[in-house]
């Protein structure tokens, strides 16, 4: 389980890093050609790349001869205590970092909400805070609502108030508060990737520019007034995870500069949507195809040996009273050597499997504990392991986790019925035994798993 988690984190980190670098380099061009909305939507490449590498990897089938698949007992990989300790330390470090990042974001959110003071509900459904810094904004993950500064009517005239409310309502319609929550969640999981924290700030900037473009499209004659309204806003010192508000001097300058240019035409917006859709599809396919292929070993069928030839009958004995010369008896034909034993399935067919050995649990190896586990495995029509169940184990619960982890990686040649591969339940016994002649701590024991019963 630990190795699978680290593998998923590593592959998704690589895929998301490549996607973030691509978006960072292309976002100025996307904004200039297709508008701020398409540039903001291009960040969808990052979660799509993450999800793509978590899908099942491509399968590569390797066919080998029967002689190459000797059914010798499989020695379990008894991991040394140092290896287990390293894996556990890495897991604990990642988990501690995720908790620390989550706590940091939660503290930022709580402090900001406390600075808002008591909120008063207005006639139009918005709320009025007891402060003015960092406002107006959209607040609330489950019930998003607009929060206005205390001096909203005094600081802004009627036209400016209309522009501000249009901007915040655009956030509500687009669901930007949930996008910011997703960004916060990814920052907790991938806290070790510094590029993700940089990308989080750029996403918030593109988000605000996209909403600015929406407002300007609704009020094309109010560009100058909208820029003046931005300058009147008291900016927040830092971006809070679960709100949508204006923050930062640098992004504000860039936003005001963007207002000088006309918005994209209808044809450009359609072209931008087409380019974005194609990019999302290609990015998902590329991330999925870049995964290492899952190898399935298929064994060529083995024909049954011919039955042993019966010995030739002896010639009848000649009576002693006859004077005929004594005839030598026909020598007996020695029987053919018996066919070597083979493992068979319930249906009696010959079977070979690709079964990575289970790990010998470190604590069991240290305590020199042996045991047995009987598994019920559902083999799919593609030879993969669909379900694994522990039918019985001795001692109970000691070796179950190790065997289940290994069994999920096993592949089999599927059962053929009427010319088609079908699913089949099989039983697989696994024996964990200590080697009495070997006291080496690096090789404390072995696990033997016949292919099928």
Overview of the molecule:
Residues 345-441 form the TonB C-terminal domain. There is one protein chain. This protein is of the alpha+beta class and 453 residues long. It has two domains: 2-105 and 117-289, no CATH class; 353-448, TonB (TolA/TonB C-terminal domain, 2-Layer Sandwich), CATH 3.30.2420.10. The protein is 44% helix and 15% strand. The protein has 13 helices and 15 strands. The radius of gyration is 36 Å and the shape is elongated.
Features:
single chain; 453 residues; alpha+beta; TolA/TonB C-terminal domain; 2 domains; five-stranded mixed β-sheet; four-stranded antiparallel β-sheet; 13 helices; 15 strands; 15% strand; elongated
In short:
The protein has 453 residues and is an alpha+beta fold. It has helices spanning 2-34, 36-41, 45-52, 81-116, 152-155, 158-174, 176-189, 194-218, 223-232, 249-258, 266-289, 362-366, 400-407; strands at 59-64, 120-121, 127-128, 137-139, 145-148, 243-245, 294-299, 353-354, 371-379, 385-394, 411-412, 415-417, 420-422, 424-434, 445-448. Mean pLDDT is 78; it is low at 64-83, 318-324 and 339-350.
């Amino acid at each position: 389980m630990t190795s699978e988690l680290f593998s998923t984190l590593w592959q998704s980190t690589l895929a998301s890093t490549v996607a973030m670098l691509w978006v960072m380099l292309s976002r100025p061009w996307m904004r200039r050609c297709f508008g701020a909305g398409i540039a903001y939507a291009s960040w969808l490449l990052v979660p799509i790349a993450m999800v793509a590498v978590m899908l099942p990897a491509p399968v590569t089938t390797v066919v080998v001869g029967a002689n190459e698949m000797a059914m010798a007992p499989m020695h379990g990989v008894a991991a040394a205590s140092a290896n287990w300790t390293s894996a556990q330390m890495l897991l604990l470090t990642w988990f501690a970092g995720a908790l620390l990042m989550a706590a940091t974001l939660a503290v930022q959110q709580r402090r900001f909400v406390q600075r808002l003071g008591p909120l008063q509900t207005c006639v139009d459904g918005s709320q009025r805070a007891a402060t003015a810094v960092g406002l107006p904004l959209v607040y609330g993950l489950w019930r998003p609502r607009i929060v206005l500064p205390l001096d909203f009517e005094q600081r802004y005239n009627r036209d400016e108030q209309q522009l501000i409310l249009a901007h915040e309502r655009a956030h509500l319609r687009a669901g930007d508060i949930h996008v910011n929550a997703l960004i916060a969640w990814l920052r907790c999981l991938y806290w070790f990737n510094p590029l993700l924290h940089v990308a989080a700030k750029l996403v918030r900037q593109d988000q605000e520019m996209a909403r600015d473009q929406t407002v300007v499209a609704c009020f094309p004659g109010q560009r100058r007034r909208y820029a003046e309204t931005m300058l009147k806003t008291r900016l927040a010192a830092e971006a809070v995870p679960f709100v949508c508000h204006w923050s930062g001097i640098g992004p504000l300058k860039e936003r005001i500069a963007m207002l000088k240019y006309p918005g994209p035409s209808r044809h450009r917006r359609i072209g931008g949507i087409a380019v974005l859709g194609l990019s999302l599809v290609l990015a998902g396919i590329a991330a999925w195809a870049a995964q290492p292929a899952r190898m399935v070993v298929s064994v060529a069928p083995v024909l049954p040996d011919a039955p042993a030839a019966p010995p030739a009958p002896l010639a009848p004995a000649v009576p002693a009273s006859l004077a005929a010369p004594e005839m030598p008896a026909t020598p007996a034909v020695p029987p053919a050597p018996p066919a070597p034993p083979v493992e068979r399935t319930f249906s009696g067919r010959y079977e070979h499997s690709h079964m990575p050995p289970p790990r010998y649990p470190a604590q069991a190896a240290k305590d020199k504990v042996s045991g047995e586990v009987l598994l019920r495995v559902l083999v799919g029509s593609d030879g993969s392991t669909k379900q694994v169940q522990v039918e019985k184990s001795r001692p109970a619960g000691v070796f179950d986790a190790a065997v289940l982890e290994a069994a999920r990686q096993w592949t089999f040649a599927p059962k053929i019925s009427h010319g088609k591969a079908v699913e089949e339940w099989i039983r697989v016994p696994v024996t964990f035994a200590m080697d009495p002649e070997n006291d080496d701590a690096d090789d404390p024991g072995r696990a033997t798993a016949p292919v099928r019963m």
